[in-house]
Amino acid sequence: MPAGTGFPAVASPAPSLRRGACPSLATPMQTGDGLLVRLRPSRPGLTPGDYICLARLAADHGNGLLEVTARGNLQLRGLKAETVRRLAEGLDDAGIDLNRGVAVETPALSGLDPDEIADATKLATAIRAAIAGPLSMLRLAPKLAIVVDGGGRLSLADQVGDIRLDAVRRGEGQFWRLSIGGDARTAQPLAAVADGDAIPAVAILLRALDGMGPATRGRDLDAGALRSALAPMTVDADFPAVPAFPPSPVGRHTVGVRPVLGLGLPYGATDAATLERLMRGLAGLGEAEIRLSPHRALLVLGLAAGAIDAAAGLAEAAGYWTRADAPGNAIAVCAGARGCASGTFDTKAVADLLVSSAPELLDGSMTVHVSGCPKGCAHPKPATLALSGQAAGIGLVFDGRSDAAALSTLAPETIGRTMERLAALVRKTKSKGETVRQAIERLGAAAIADIVRQGRQ
């Protein structure tokens, strides 16, 4: 271990253990710390007692580590083949039912937010039923994701979906904007359909995916051919403006008259004892409901406005983030070498180093992606800055995915100094009102590469 770095030197990447399917109870995924299971509870909200049960199951049958993913799913780590079955039995005993099969995602506050255009829950339930019933013979990609976004404060506009249905309002009417292969900004629009045609329209897309083979994703489909197929049910070809991306779920929100407290898990992870302690405290404050949220967060609902401060205090004492501007909230981190055989360095130690050495870079305007290998599980989309584990070291990627060509390769012991220099340059050159992201994009790749070279002199 290099002196002063706090994390192991880069090792040669191990063979990938990532499967083509999402890790579920039926198909757990082998990782560096055992088997990993991803859970999607069918109830949008669970009680503190449910989370206490989940924490105990994680401790009894795994290594006690729990994660909330970027898409708002729950992961339990460190299981063994013989304990996965006991975990499933424990979930059944606790009455925690799970959604299985194709991921059909809705906003965390769907059905509760008076600002949403439509409650996405009903349509999502109908899509799941169609896939489990009349469309069950289709061969679909295991990682296929369908986003049903009714809008509202914490919409899913920034979530990538193979198929997207975004609620849009036109005059007194409401319909669904159907698109493929991206988030609300980048997906290719196909049609706008009425509620009654949404399921038949999705069926056309799913059959097209099936026809191209079980590895096909939304981005692989022929948008022109699908627009023609959907033409008979298209109600409006003049698509409205794409909605703005939502704010961070972390922090305090008012949804109608309902106070909501968003808790960020440090780099998306917690341990069973800490989670149980927090949930016992929340249970003592009132009838709380906890919802999983994208961006690795938990949303606390149901507490009286006067109890929110106490809830935030409990969460902060447990190490959770309660402010959107918490520096670590701007870093997307995978399990790294501690939890994944593909990881080449301790990603969380690097993330801590960024927080301590260059907090000015983490103003929330951009995501810094710290990935133990080029796969980029924690942040599949491009990031303004990415640190990616490679055979030769830690690659510094500008404005790209973790598997993109690196500007330079850094030794672990140089990361802190490099980021300190970049922060100093941004501070010196940033214009009034300019975000860190805007400043770095203006500086460009050449300036960042020059900073790396200076660190080697």
Task: Describe the protein.
It is a single chain. This protein has 457 residues and is an alpha+beta fold. Helices cover 30% and strands 23% of the residues. It contains ten helices and 20 strands. The chain has helices spanning 48-61, 81-94, 120-132, 195-211, 223-230, 272-283, 308-317, 347-357, 415-429, 436-456; strands at residues 29-31, 34-39, 45-46, 65-68, 74-79, 103-105, 145-149, 161-170, 173-182, 188-193, 251-255, 258-264, 269-271, 289-293, 297-301, 331-333, 368-371, 383-390, 393-400, 408-410. A five-stranded antiparallel beta sheet has the order 1-2-5-4-13. Strand 4 (65-68) and strand 5 (74-79) form a beta hairpin. The longest helix has 21 residues, at 436-456. It is globular. The two termini are 23 Å apart. Residues 1-19 have low confidence and may be disordered.
